Amino acid sequence: MSGLPTVRAVMLMVTAVLAVTAAAGGVVVIMDGDLLSAQEPVRARPRATPLRTDVAAPRLDQLVPTTEPVKDFGAGGPGVTSTPARVLAIAPGTVPKETRLKLAKLKHVQKVTIVDAGAVKVSGTGLNLLAVDPSGFRSWTPQPVADQPAVWSALARGELVADAGAMRKYGMVLGAMYQVDGGPRLRVAASASLGLTGVDGLVSAEVGRTLGFAQGVAVLLHGKEGTIGEAGVRKLLGKGAQVVVLDAAARTPKQQQPAQEQQQQVSVGRPSSYLELYKAAATRCPGLSWTVLAAIGQVESSHGRNNGPSSAGALGPMQFMPATWKHYGVDGDGDGKKDIWSPYDAVPGAANYLCANKAGQGGERLRKAIWFYNHSWDYVNKVMGIAQAYAKTYA
């Protein structure tokens, strides 16, 4: 374990990272347009024990082993407006308040924040991390990341959120514990495309202090894309400061930019219970209650205990028809596969499918989206009734 790397080390780190493509691929979770798979037939479910109203349903947090209680952040949406960093700088020392005020007055700069930073080694592999306050730093990430409560809940628990590029580069595994050389063990609880070149991950400010990170040395500036000049930032931070332009694509002539850029997507690994899985998956569709996903999971497979195939050919814990899964299935746990049988993929896939049919708008749009999941109004009423029961049980 060490504090902030030397200027030479930082320069080497920045140079190396600039040579690597940092953007992570992903699919757009919330799709425009109207109902996209209206032709799916009513699906016969696998033979399962009917839900009895006179018997208490099993608690979702007891279906699989659980960990300590989770401090949950709420979903993003209108309350969290992403204002991602356009320029990232590492100062040679703590940035004084007066310098921060001058940075805020630079042309085109709209927001400035300063956080702690440092480097750790895990089995000899160096990782460059920022130590941040989960609440205050949330808006500094791309909107899909800001909207994902599991990312910020993980930080609040003292866990590591790794950049998607670092996960691939170093072969890190979601949910795994990693021993910091000379320091604590950190669990990789989430992976996300942070959009911060040279930064391998985030930890909480508290964890950063225990790791001995340098305080107040990482500067992030936000403004309109392609407008903040790095020269002014270098001048204010002094000799030895390293400045990285994060919005280089916006400074490139339009004809040289890719025709279409994919939205970034968050993966939250494998939650330790169905309760957490439903909650995490529901955040893929702002406005969708996790209780609806849980109710569908109960009706379709009794939460993975009767996965089919059904007589109509539906598969897995959320009983997808293979053709529907082909369009709406997702890799929910970041293992590189879209597995219809895996609850870690199937549950977020169900959220994806419901959201494509406007479930996040609530009311009749929600009921219609559930109807498209299985063409039966009796099915819709049953799902809504169970969802209300879950809302009361886990209030």
Structural class of the helix and strand makeup?
Answer: alpha+beta
Secondary structure: number of strands: 9
Helix content: 25-40%
- Name the quaternary structure: single chain
Strand arrangement across the biggest beta sheet: 5-6-4-7-3-2-8-1-9
H and E order: HEHEEHHHEHEEEHEHEHHHHHH
Which stretches are low in confidence, meaning pLDDT under 50 for 5 or more residues running? Answer: 1-42, 44-57, 65-71, 254-264
Tally of helical segments: 14
Biggest sheet: strands, sense, closure?
A: 9 strands, mixed
If you compute it from the alpha carbons, what radius of gyration comes out, rounded to the nearest whole angstrom? Answer: 23 Å
Overall mean pLDDT score? 78
Question: What overall geometry do the principal axes of the alpha carbons give?
Answer: elongated
Proportion of residues in extended strands: 5-15%
Distance between the termini: 42 Å
Structural commentary:
The protein has 14 helices and 9 strands. It is 32% helix and 15% strand. The chain has helices spanning 7-18, 97-104, 134-137, 143-146, 149-156, 164-170, 205-210, 230-237, 274-282, 290-301, 322-328, 343-356, 363-373, 377-393; strands spanning 87-90, 109-122, 125-132, 160-163, 177-179, 185-192, 201-204, 214-223, 242-245. Helix 10 (290-301) crosses helix 14, helix 12 packs across helix 13 and helix 13 packs across helix 14 (377-393). A 9-stranded mixed sheet has the order 5-6-4-7-3-2-8-1-9, with helices on both faces. With 395 residues, it is an alpha+beta fold.
Brief descriptors of the model:
9 strands, alpha+beta, 32% helix, disordered N terminus, 395 residues, nine-stranded mixed sheet
